[in-house]
Amino acid sequence: MSAAKAGGKSVRSLVIVLGDQLDAEAAVWDDFDAQRDVIWMAEVVEESEHVWTSKPRIAVFLAAMRHFRDAQIKLGRRVNYAELEDAGNTQTLAEELARAVAALKPERLVMTEAGEWRVQEGIAAAAKAAGVALEVRDDRHFFQTRADFAAHAEGRKMLRMEFFYREVRRKHRVLLDKKGEPEGGQWNYDHDNRGSFSKGGPKGEKLRAPILSEPDATTRAVLELVARRFAKHPGELKEFAWPVTVEAARATLKDFIKHRLANFGQFQDAMWMEEPWLFHSRISAAMNLKLLNPREVVAAAEAAYRAGDVHLASAEGFIRQILGWREYVRGIYWKFMPRYVGLNALGAKEKLPEFYWTGKCEMNCLRQSIGQTLEHGYAHHIQRLMVTGLYTLLLGVEPQKVHEWYLAVYVDAVEWVELPNTLGMSQYGDGGIMASKPYAATGKYIDRMSNYCAGCRFDPAKSVGADACPFTTLYWDFLLRHEPLLAKNQRMALQVKNIARLKPADRVAIQARAEEIRGNGGAPAAAKAEDEQLAL
């Protein structure tokens, strides 16, 4: 291949396709000319080490990218693709792009908006340094553009997802009746979506295991590469079964709609030991890599409701996650970046506990949630918000460290969706931009929504003593530490009022135990022998 030509033909456009842009319907294909344009893709170590990325997440991206590359080649398109272990790979996106530009000498670069501010800025700088024009096109994978969200936000003193959600539902005519009003007479059925399992657990609700995507030769090669090249990174690969092609993603969606959507609404917040999937969809990674269009997903859920296969509360609860939260957090991200990533409204400064990287923890709920995260690269939204996220919030961990962990370990983590959910909603680091209050709770919440506490030596009803649940201790400590700030929040009024019930001696004991937990790296001190005997 000569410096100015690819396959003997001059290059008009070098079309940049990032690992989370595997969208066959993206705007970059509108004027694509297979005779004059070349697709550019690159696997680089930089994207696995700017946060200490887990093996499952690395594997999802690389496997999906290679399948997408192969699909483009089958369409007769030229692809300039750098594999991780290619000779000469510089291992950064900017340098690999510069290398391709120098070799192919394209007239211009074309790309879809990146999903991460850092990456977008890096590509823009690389294009400028190379002296080649960069055209950035809107990401029409989403229902709303960045400009749409900016228009929604203009003039509002406070942003709230519920109002945005209603606006988007009306615009796209989703779950509306013939009069254009919300189906069933109300917009939100969240009060019906908070069920927990009986003693029989999810099996009593006819839980059916999801279909899993068996790795093919391409994916197996990626798994071998990741296991060898990133051996010291966290996470496991032996259970890897994520959809990494359009076909597999659609099959996963179809399986969810048919077998689990009916129970998703009622039990979407529930948790159960050794049951990582429950009634959840397993499609978030495929959507965030753009293998699956959210319009197709929303349409399938609405069709299931209109066919009488699922209750309205289940269909609405699922659609709200996609049409509401997913679109809303993207809007928040691009409106407030780059300053958003540095926000720390609560002044949290503790280190992330080491057991978040190993799963070795005495608290059963954390051991279960972190363990499945490392094994599968997955935990559902309540495990993230009200177990792993709740603990770091109460402990007072620096929100940027929590953000880096979430971005590193989850297969569906792309910064536009992960950062607002973590720093904003989970850690309240943005001071209320994303959520109206801190999501603070005692261990009783986890006990109510799971069977985790049944297998744990800590008592969620106790805040002091050797067997007191650290969540409960840290909850009261959190309220005490932030009482002046929380007292200004109307949604926290009842919780703050409860502080008055604490006797002075109880306050001292709670704060002393909280400091002990923080001094022990975020873990409760090991039980003394006599305490263990009493527990028996």
CATH architecture of the largest domain: Orthogonal Bundle
Number of discrete helical segments: 22
Corresponding CATH superfamily of the largest domain: DNA Cyclobutane Dipyrimidine Photolyase, subunit A, domain 3
| Major sheet strand order | 5-4-3-6-7
CATH class of the largest domain: Mainly Alpha
Quaternary structure state of the chains depicted: single chain
Classify the beta-strand content into a percent band.
5-15%
For the sheet with most strands, the description reads:
5 strands, parallel
Uncertain residue ranges: 1-6, 527-536
Structural class: mainly alpha
| Whole-number tally of structural domains | 3
Provide the CATH topology of the largest domain: DNA Cyclobutane Dipyrimidine Photolyase, subunit A, domain 3
Radius of gyration: 24 Å
Principal-axis shape = globular
Number of strands: 7
The proportion of residues forming helix, as a percent range, comes to 40-55%
The overall pLDDT, averaged over residues, is 94
Distance N to C terminus: 73 Å
Order of helices and strands: EEEEHHEHEHEHHHHHHHHHHHHHHHHHH
